[in-house]
Amino acid sequence: MVSKKLLNAIIKQYSLPLEGLHGLSHWARVLENGRLLAPLTGARLEVVELFAVFHDARRRNESTDYRHGHRAADYVRAQRHLLDLNERDFDLLVMACAYHVDGGTIGDVTVQTCWDADRLDICRVGLQINPKYLCTEAAREETFMREAVVRGVNRYVPELIKSEWGVEL
To answer: What single string gives the DSSP state of each residue in the chain?
Structure first.
């Protein structure tokens, strides 16, 4: 689970609106997607959960920002002291953040699950989920994609923002 201390550190440095397209609601939907996918894919849940809050944390705008994944990876490295991860899991988190915007589909199943958790929320920006950019069979499952579309299009605000993170939007 993402600690409140870590989340507060990420929020404090986040330069975009928390209510924006890449803000807290998106992070929470990515977290929910990841929590649903991880048991099906065998991904390392702690890495998937941390990816959800780090992957867009260094965006500079709400539109095209191709380097934000690499800035997020650098930020993960800078926050190493707050992360209770072994070296392998830490490296997976860095890789997942750094390359999540590149459209890749090949890699460790934990990295793939991170990317799928994010890509399943693409409808929030008016785009459609393209199964060719999903890495895992679980994410490409029709019902899974359909439910993700509903959450993204409606910009669903997960309850975990308040219940786990203690944040009011």
So the answer is: ---HHHHHHHHHH--S-TTSTTSHHHHHHHHHHHHHHHHHHT--HHHHHHHHHHTTTT-SSSS--TTHHHHHHHHHHHTGGG----HHHHHHHHHHHHHTTTT---S-HHHHHHHHHHHTTGGGGTPPP-GGG--SHHHH-HHHHHHHHHHHHTT---THHHHTT----
